[in-house]
Amino acid sequence: MRLTNLTRANEIGANSYLLDFDGDGRIVLDAGMHPRLDGLEALPDFSLLPVDSVDAIFVSHAHHDHTGGLPVITREQPRARVFMSQGTYQLADPLLHNSIEIMLKQRLDKNILEYPLFTHKELGNQVARWQPCTLRRPLDLHGQPILGGEPLSFTFHDAGHILGSVGIEFNHRGQRVLYTGDVNFSDQTLMQAAVFPREKIDTLIIETTRGAHPTPPDFTRENVINRLAESILDIFDQGGAVLIPVFALGKTQEALTILHLLQKQGRLPRTPIFIGGLGRSFTQIYDKLSHVTPRAYPNLQLLPQMQPEIMDGRRARESRPKKGHIYLISSGMMTEKTLSNLFAQHFLPQKHYGIFFIGYCDPDSPAGRLRAAKPGEKVVINPLAGEQEVRCKLDYFDLTAHAKREDLLNYILEVNPRTCVLVHGDTPALEWFQHELQNRRPDMRVLIPTPGKEITL
Ligand SMILES: [Zn+2]
Ligand SMILES: [Zn+2]
User: Fold this and answer.
1) Of 46-60, 129-143, 360-374, 427-441, the least confident
2) What strands, in cross-sheet order, belong to the sheet with 203-207?
3) Distance in Å, CA 66 to ligand 2 centroid
4) Residue 359 has what pLDDT?
5) 63 C-alpha to center of ligand 1: Å?
6) What's the CATH fold of domain 2-213+401-456?
């Protein structure tokens, strides 16, 4: 088997990897888009794949860094079947249609002439090629149940990261390969811990997002949520409002559930909560699939029970935050022109307001720069607004959807692969895993795949 890293750099960017099972199938794992780059550079390097040379494309979950390039590779690989979980099947469609709208805006704002990279119509036609697959049911590359004797089959396993996220296991002539996608081995509030194979894996391709973040020994998610509740109450007591920049998919639904439980327990007042329009679309899908996907609180219907108010661009520009309100709006990285970036302009000058971060943000993103700022310092989160002094309260609550690095390491040691391929991490994260594994398992082949270079596994 051979692997080619189709990304353009070893980082968390546009995820995509080619696996060539030597005459038994050529498959692509994920087809993402880079969150910070523009134009064709934001895509994986699909030029490494000759047209019509791929048998199947697998999507681990619907986050944009794993699906954003899917319509482009699907166009170039007309024979390839596209496999994903039921949850991803529902989520990827609105996500990619929204992505077209963003590209259309960027075409005008930034003069990116190749945008949009695909159209609503093309995407609509492609969806017919997507096949939703059930968890834990081995299928062949035609999407048919296996009868035995097939050289290559695949099985989806719940990855516990967001709705529909899966790790993908391949069985190739008795050799087992597992691609984790983005994974979480601990329970979140809504999503429950991954249910992954625990027996021997021959080749493990594993995400390393949190490799540079040691978990404090006294860390518990419960403590983090308690501190979040107290900090929100503090802001409310001073007559302020709280802005929580979140990804529309995953974080919005986790945060809504946390706030719902805190309100139900009487630990937070039942004050208005705002979410964005895309956040609402995804929450609707979480509600719709609550009984048929692995998650906690299957009877909880977030939209009808919480009735969040919907924030749009005009409202974010024109209205002012109101005392005691919580704004759970995207994007999580506070990218320019997104709701959270626009609305943050009203928060920064207000001493008794709070901006609380609850997940990963790229250090070079506006959210990353703001998170690193100290009170009284000047920051630029939007060039149009210029430098702004940070007067509001800033805080970080670690409610990540990614596995702790200690859990990832333990999993690698437990399934003890002959070859471990490290992906989806920045350089310090990748290097931490490489160093730990080389010390603990000197016999294990540990690889950080160079972009564009084929390696034999
Ligand atoms: Zn993800
Ligand atoms: Zn990811």
Assistant:
1) 360-374
2) 139-140, 152-158, 166-172, 175-179, 203-207, 419-423, 445-447
3) 6
4) 87
5) 5
6) Metallo-beta-lactamase; Chain A (3.60.15)
